[in-house]
Amino acid sequence: MELSTLVGDFASALREVDATNPVGSAGRFKPGCGPLTESEVTGLILQRLGDRNPTYGRAAARRYPGGRAECDFVLPGEWAIEVKLARPFGDNGKPAERWSENLLYPYPGNTSSLGDSLKLLGSEFPERKAVLVIGYEHTPPKIPLEPAVRGF
Predict the structure, then answer these.
(1) Which of 39, 93, 128, 152 suits 113 as a labelling partner, its CA being 20 to 30 A distant?
(2) Farthest-apart Cα atoms in the chain, separation
(3) Contact, 86 vs 98, CB < 8 A?
(4) Which tens digit of pLDDT belongs to each residue from 19-77?
């Protein structure tokens, strides 16, 4: 499977899941995918993808070979993917001061997208590896995500 296909399918499923107005386990935030945790939104998207296409039914979070940490989802024989959320605003509508650190913090062992990239590169997953960023942005953008994503 090409990465562009997977990303397109993932984005389509994200829109569909968001339209159902999910409420996360914390239950105190507004409905929708925006306030969900990374694992909650990824799980709901994988469930939706698996319902539509049996190929995605095999995708799930998996432990890194020889480690305790989990990769956000592995599509066996295809992809090992870490998912990152880029949310420049909180559920309260106020800017989140350190949102870009989730993408750009540059040190190994950190859970930023750069840290996850290093972890994936050093892993023994036989699958191709990628980091997928889910960006939440107003239309038109109040805080554009593009500079941070380009920096990544």
Answers:
(1) 93
(2) 44
(3) no
(4) 998 887 766 777 777 778 889 999 999 999 999 999 999 999 999 998 888 999 999 99
With tokens 């295809």, the residue in question is 78
Nearest-5° Cα angle at 103, 37 to 20: 30
> Which amino acid, one-letter code, is at 136?
Y
- Please provide residue 79's backbone torsions phi and psi, each rounded to the nearest 5 degrees: -140, 145
Domain membership of residue 16 as a residue range: 3-151
Q: Note the pTM of the prediction, 2 decimals.
A: 0.86
Q: Strand order in 128-135's β-sheet?
A: 60-63, 70-75, 79-86, 128-135
Tell me which of 1-5, 38-42, 115-119 is least confident.
Answer: 115-119
Cα 69 to Cα 113: distance, rounded to the nearest angstrom: 15
Number of separate domains in the chain = 1
Token duo for residue 127: 């699958």
